[in-house]
Amino acid sequence: MWRRLLKEFLAKEKLLFLPVEGVSFEPVDYETDIFALYQSLKESLTHFRLLIRENPFANPILLLAVNLARRLEKGELTFSALEQLTQFLDGQAFLARAERLHKYVGVVDPLENLASLKEFVASLPGLAEKDFDAFNQSLGRELFGLVVTAHPTFALREELLRLLADLASGRNLAGVPLNESQLREIFKNIFTKEHLSDPEITLEKEHRLALEAIFNIKKALWRFYDQLFRLAREHFPEKWWQLRPRLVTVASWVGYDLDGRRDIAWTQSFAFRLEERKLALEYYLKEAQYILDLCPIAQEAEALRACLAQIIQIISENLSGAEEEIAVFSAASAGSEESLEALRLVAKRMYQALGRRLVRPSTLVRLIDEAAQKAQAFPEVLHRLAILRTEVENFGLGVSHIHVRLNAKQIHNAIRGLIGLETDPEDPSSKKTYLKAVDALLAGVKPVTINFGSLIAERTTAKRLFMLVTQMLKYCDAETPIRFLIAETESSFTPIAALYFAKLFNVEEKIDLSPLFETPRALFRGARIVDEMLANQFYRRYVLARGRLCIQTGFSDAGRHLGQTAASFAIENLRRRLARVIEKHRLAPLEVVIFNTHGESIGRGAHPASFKARLQYIMSPRSRAELLKTGALLKEEFSFQGGDGYVYFLNPYLALAVLTRIFEFAREPLDTDDPFYREWDYVFEFFATVQQFNERIMQDPDYALLLHEYGRNLLYPTGSRAVRRQFEVEKQLFSAAEIRAIPHNAILHQLGLLANTIGGVGQAVKKNPEQFACLEQSSPRFKLLISLAEYAFSFSDFYAFLGYLAILDPGFWLMAAAQAENPQHTQE
């Protein structure tokens, strides 16, 4: 989209392709023409690839490497020139990525996207018929949820991430299309900035960047609410402002994810929640002040102005002291005597002022409603009040909803001593005994009272997290629900045990327990696990009281265990079996929430064809139709993980494009007539073959060694989270399963072989090539799954992979030494 300008820029600028952060090789080579070097190496690689026709044992990548080594040895090439070439290639790859991102999100023109959003609203039941109640009911449903996570994919510096978002959107933060001068400045930055992660990626940096992404999502939602109310005013002139739209939620677990982590202090998590409360109150204060300024200074507006002044006063009073609270809880993470004493004093003041503390969003909503009643003569004021009320109702006293997360093992450790848990909860010889023991705890549980001192004293991660949730509800937001995610759930025992702690700390009415099914065992037993959960009288009562059943699926972890295509197939089966469980337990019209956790790359579940393909891949039309057929209210959530996920939301107009694609997906008819489901025997065996191949690979100790040895030396840190879960760090590495999904996937990308996506597909095709070809042509679902492997194959290079392996081959170095012309190089 800007290739012509780029060509002119590179021709005129005569840039030195070196990072301004520092030069690695000196003296700097000012003589070598980097463009000529680039063309020369491209031609050499093309020539080496042609040699394969005559010598199938030749490796063009290794031949190019040897060619470079010899040129360096002879002095024909300098390391400085290679450094400049690397910088140039980084810039070119960055620009290609920006173009892909632009195409991926589709239309980015804000006017076109707003028009599409307007069409979505117009299509909702009730609007065309001028049936206010039906339309309000349509708007009041939560259809989708966007979840921002802290997965370690912060592979680019923040400045480059923002430039990537701006280039992909084609607009700056003000919404103005990028002009030639701005593009030239971006090009200059791209070719002179180091394309690496920030030197120190702390949790605080991740949280700050997550907040930036969330605020841009909310800007896009504000435009959507603005469109919605203006359209509603045309159809319901008497009461349009009474509409209560929900439709989309925004959540974050950045700072609250303790799955396999010991490095996040509870005080830091609480400080993040206090900071988010403060930012929300500041935003509401700014909006209320703006609305007050819109009001005329006239007698007929006095009551309205007084009401708005009351809102402003309440918010201002609650902002007093907020900075000190945040600072004290942040500092307490150090654990010094002085910081704990400061924490004790602040905690005491917070408790004493609790009666005056704003912790219920409904308090603000009630005051906004009162102001709206008094603003009937002022349409624009009423319009802004309607949007503000919508934001308070949807986001509460925070910038978003929050998800907390821990691992099933951490729940088991917390309850182990209470029931004598000595084996796996699924152990057939003890399973019923363990469940009866938890039932006995649930039958006799009496809520306990805790304070911040309780958190300081508690050493069990799970209990401490439930206590933290209690304090968040008490001091930050007592009404907005908190999701409680449990990673690697493989038994109904785990969420039922978690329910005991929820009741013990008196938070079961405000949290939504959500088992995460991501391991092979969990994926194939997931529906049965939910069935057992609902068969438990205590859990069933809890779900009915909450009005929602929540689960989470993990494409990323499942992909490394089963292979990505087989993982998608397994998750779709889980979703379809879940529909039968819902029917069995007659849960309709209960809300069913499925959080489809996936990453930003092929191996972690993000289909690369388009944003629409991505959504279709994780939420198949057939499974959605079957879940909706039960009468349940289906809400689908999906993740945007780390820096690679935030890039969609570092420009407000790119964020608007993503939001538009989601609502367009909601309007898509659910086409369920697909041969994929008629040829079930073949489909099942096909993906079983893929799964078996990947399970064998995951158990292979050599594969674990490959990932471990190369991962330690090839990957830069891309986040604050460790490569392995911290309760596994002390163990000797025995299998690839112990390496977390993100570094696992990143190593395969670096090695040039996306084995977790393409592995096993060839064997599956080979079993019946004719039926494979026929189904791929006739089945949209099958074609979508297979196309993921095709994309992965196109990004793989077996010669690059073999080149990396050759580095560890002594024979390769012996042959290289024999060919060296310099005796010193031979010795080296």
Automatic annotation (TrEMBL):
Record-linked SUPFAM superfamilies: Phosphoenolpyruvate/pyruvate domain
GO biological process, one term: tricarboxylic acid cycle
Single GO molecular function: phosphoenolpyruvate carboxylase activity
GO cellular component, one term: cytosol
InterPro entries: PEP_COase, Pyrv/PenolPyrv_kinase-like_dom
Pfam families referenced in this protein's UniProt entry, alphabetically: PEPcase (PF00311)
Matches recorded under PANTHER family: PHOSPHOENOLPYRUVATE CARBOXYLASE
Role: Forms oxaloacetate, a four-carbon dicarboxylic acid source for the tricarboxylic acid cycle.
Protein name (record): Phosphoenolpyruvate carboxylase
Source species of the chain: Thermodesulfatator atlanticus
Lineage of origin: Bacteria, Pseudomonadati, Thermodesulfobacteriota, Thermodesulfobacteria, Thermodesulfobacteriales
